[in-house]
Automatic annotation (TrEMBL), chains A, B:
InterPro entries per the UniProt record, alphabetical: ATP_PFK, PFKA, Phosphofructokinase_dom, PKF_sf, PPi-PFK
Annotated family: Belongs to the phosphofructokinase type A (PFKA) family. PPi-dependent PFK group II subfamily. Clade 'B2' sub-subfamily.
Catalytic reaction list: beta-D-fructose 6-phosphate + diphosphate = beta-D-fructose 1,6-bisphosphate + phosphate + H(+)
Alphabetical keyword list: Cytoplasm, Glycolysis, Kinase, Magnesium, Metal-binding, Transferase
Name of the protein in question: Pyrophosphate--fructose 6-phosphate 1-phosphotransferase
Gene: pfp
Source species of the chain: Blautia caecimuris
Length: 410, 410
């Protein structure tokens, strides 16, 4: 019997370690050459696969080049935002499985967030329905950390380390003048506050900046916010505040919408500024003090220099574990992280498997008990949760140009 | 005869290595304990000194804590934006020199940009006029690299490394979808394009993104810009463009002013968005493609993880050299960098001294011959100039929290 081949794809927005998960899948696949034939990648996810855009990893990244995946940002294989049809009667399914058969695919891996797990769910259900022997496994990734049934997600630790380190640096930068100032830092995470909460780690000592941290899990009240800032001036003339991009008021209106409702550009179009810019203007206007806003932006998900070594290692493990699970006959599962305590009390992580149907289209928020009563800070329990995830740094090799060396598709 | 004491201050906006220059001055001062007594720091520059806010480095940063200055962002001593009066007849001058005498100051060091060199100029001229024996030396720093009579400035190399590395990462992040997109990256540098020019290093191969780099030294033409972007789509569906915050059109109007002239916030105030946000809206409107803008913001001057080892080393050397020069009787000078070529053709830097009066209030632009003819790129000569300045990375120690350990005033 000919050995079946493996194929892997990436989908959705990248993280700093989405390529570490890819490395885990590919290197484990190659290591099992007794059971697995070729190791393919689909270029631009399932969408590119439908257009026959694939590569063979043994040719694309020979030798140590494969190792470079571990610190390369972006999605090496390219990504897509393609949602498979709800009805498994749709003709795209037989088309896909015909292609799988032509390529003799026996193992299918998809690295992504909620939407990608939806793809894993549909393909595994179609396989079950048609009696296909193909194994379909989901590899989690998201900086938002909002997947259910897993302690955390690969990508979150590095983004959290980026946020915490950068907020610590910005706080030093924002504290050089003896003059009242407010710095608003806007952080990603969509509807979940996990990433913004990590800014609490930036504090060098109890009572340090950032004084306030506002998550989308609590309703944001602009008047209370202004009072919070004024009270902070009693302790420090330089006040740093961290806000989630998704903060909203009690009515559910996003704070960033307040600006766009009035600001227009030269073409008469609404200017979509973020909530940080809005709050910067609010502070300058109402409190009459120097204000600045900083949107941390895409570096949160693509900074190689601030990859968390713990996150990178776990992302590789998740990739490897998924391949081992598929070889053991598992399908329709997502690799999950289960937190354990070692005998000495230290953090340990084990990989597990969860039914992918219970994960797709769900969102996990920061628990209410981890947000302090006044809605402007996080608890020590959260700090205990997040600290092991940001440990260690990664040595990124530099080229002759003095810059990090990354791999990319030619 | 009692030994004279040394005092050092920091002024203007911080850089990633302004504390490395401070380390150089302080460690060299302590090393010369045969000639120099105490080593003091003024808190918040000359402004804080006038309020008697000083510290003694032997107490504030004992032992290896002093070494931590080298990777700590922000200005450890705090900063100020205080301009001394033009007239040397002003009563602030005798007041300052009385304080110097009380503290038995013999050596005065000021780390900063243009404005700080103005302070060095005035204090050294007042000293000469009154026969004071105090030696006054300026230590350069600016990420803008716009000081004259020096090959480059400490702080520029690290900011350039940050810009180049981050643009390389953002380009990978922005290239994951097979769908037309434009990413505009807005870079600091005020009226000089040195920092934006460094984004050319981000290219991994000839013809790679960023496709276009616009500096304030050339007039910006929005219609030509749109044509540039459209032509780039013939080569790559994901186009990355780097712009200086200070780009302006042929009439001298800053591009960022076009938005603020119409956008207002809920208070009826002008919303000052940057030129990146303006161009993002322009591209979306006129070309009908996905557009995003990223303002690199203050991390350009405070990222510890992307400090250039070459820049850090040179900043320390400049600090040390200034102390040696003062001990040799020099005053009214700024430490400068002179580029040499080693016998094997490699880059070498030597410290020099320049009359501070020729430096303050001047600005150095990117030479016209280093900007390519169409005004949207830089030449190979610039690449040769900047490459040695971004070499090497620095190991930043991590604490138990997994984050960089910095020193700060208690």
């Amino acid at each position: 019997m000919t050995k079946k081949n493996l194929i892997v794809g990436q989908s959705g927005g990248p993280t700093a370690v989405i390529n570490s998960s890819l490395y885990g899948v590919v290197s484990e696949g190659i290591a099992h050459s007794d059971e697995i034939g070729e190791v393919y990648g689909m270029v631009n996810g399932i969408e590119g696969f439908l257009e026959d855009r694939i590569l063979n990893f043994r040719e694309a990244l020979p030798g140590e080049q494969l190792d470079y995946l571990k610190h390369t940002p972006g999605a090496y294989l390219g990504s897509c935002r393609y949602k498979l049809p709800e009805s498994l009667e749709d003709p795209v399914y037989p088309l896909l499985f015909e292609k799988f058969e032509e390529m003799n695919i026996g193992w299918f891996f998809y690295i992504g967030g909620n939407d990608s797990m939806d793809t894993v769910s549909k393909l595994s259900r179609y396989a079950a329905q048609t009696g296909s022997s193909i194994r379909v496994i989901g590899e989690p990734k998201t900086i938002d950390n909002d997947l259910v049934h897993t302690d955390h997600t690969p990508g979150y630790g590095s983004a959290a380390k980026y946020v915490a380190s950068t907020v610590r640096e910005i706080t030093l930068d924002a504290s050089v003048y003896e003059k009242k100032s407010v710095t608003i830092i806007e952080i990603m995470g969509r509807h979940a506050g996990w990433l913004t909460a990590a800014s609490a780690l930036a504090r060098k000592y109890k009572g340090d900046n950032p004084f306030f941290i506002y998550l989308p899990e609590s309703a944001f009240d602009t008047e209370k916010f202004l009072k919070d800032v004024e009270s902070a001036f009693e302790k420090n003339c330089n006040v740093v505040v961290c806000v989630s991009e998704g903060i909203h008021d009690a009515d559910g209106t996003f704070i960033c919408e307040y600006d766009s409702s009035v600001g227009t550009d030269t073409f008469g179009h609404k200017m979509l500024a973020g909530c940080g810019k809005y709050l910067e203007n609010l502070v300058r206007d109402r409190l009459g003090v120097k204000a600045r806003s900083v949107e941390l932006n895409v570096s949160q998900r693509c900074s190689a220099s601030l990859i968390s070594a713990a996150d990178q290692k776990e992302a590789v493990s998740a990739g490897r574990f998924g391949v081992q699970a598929a070889l053991n006959g598992e399908t329709g599962k997502m690799v999950s992280f289960v937190r354990r305590q070692a005998e000495d009390g230290s953090y340990q992580m084990e990989c597990g498997l969860e039914d992918v149907n219970l994960i797709c289209n769900e969102e996990k928020e920061v628990p209410a008990e981890w947000i302090t009563e006044n809605g402007s800070d996080v608890s020590d329990e959260f700090i205990k949760y997040v600290t092991p995830l940001v440990q260690g740094s990664v040595n990124v090799p530099l080229g002759e140009d003095g810059l990090p060396v990354f791999v990319y598709r030619k």
